């Protein structure tokens, strides 16, 4: 069902799909990340960043691909890299996310 749900481009579905990034089954996590990326769900970026720590490389790759698609940024995250390399890529995404959050209040004030 989740695979077929991806064909829908309804923003109301994000609230139901995003929690599946933490599902016990890795394919549900994979499809959730893939769909959120295809839907360009900007609100899901923080959850997708956390999915870069997933134990399965296919989920990590889907999360990174979604982040690149949504943000237009590439933090050179290697989903099949060593744990240390993946952690560095995750940290780059976290830093980017923090920079965006810090810039947002300034943009609203200006």
Describe the structure using short key phrases:
110 residues, mainly alpha
Topology:
Elements: H1 2-5, H2 14-17, H3 26-38, H4 45-51, H5 57-71, H6 83-109
Helix pairs in contact: 3-5, 4-5, 4-6
Give an overview in words.
With 110 residues, the chain is mainly α. The protein has six helices and no strands. Helix content is 64%, strand content 0%. It has helices spanning 2-5, 14-17, 26-38, 45-51, 57-71, 83-109. The model has no long low-confidence stretch (mean pLDDT 92). The radius of gyration is 14 Å and the shape is globular.
In short:
This protein has helices at 2-5, 14-17, 26-38, 45-51, 57-71, 83-109.
Number of helices: 6
Quick one: biggest sheet? none
Sum up the overall morphology in one term.
globular
Instruction: Tell me the total number of β-strands.
Output: 0
Low-pLDDT windows of residues: none
Q: DSSP strand (E) fraction?
A: under 5%
């Amino acid at each position: 069902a989740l695979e077929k749900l991806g064909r829908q481009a309804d923003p109301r579905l994000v609230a139901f799909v995003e929690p599946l990034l933490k599902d016990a089954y890795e394919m549900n996590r994979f499809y959730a990340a893939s769909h959120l990326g295809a839907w360009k769900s900007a609100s899901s970026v923080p959850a997708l960043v956390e999915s870069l720590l997933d134990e399965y490389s296919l989920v990590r790759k889907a999360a990174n691909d979604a982040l690149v698609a949504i943000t237009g940024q590439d933090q050179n995250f290697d989903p099949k890299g060593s744990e240390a390399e993946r952690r560095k890529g995750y940290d780059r995404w976290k830093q980017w996310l923090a920079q965006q959050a810090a810039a947002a209040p300034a943009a609203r004030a200006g």
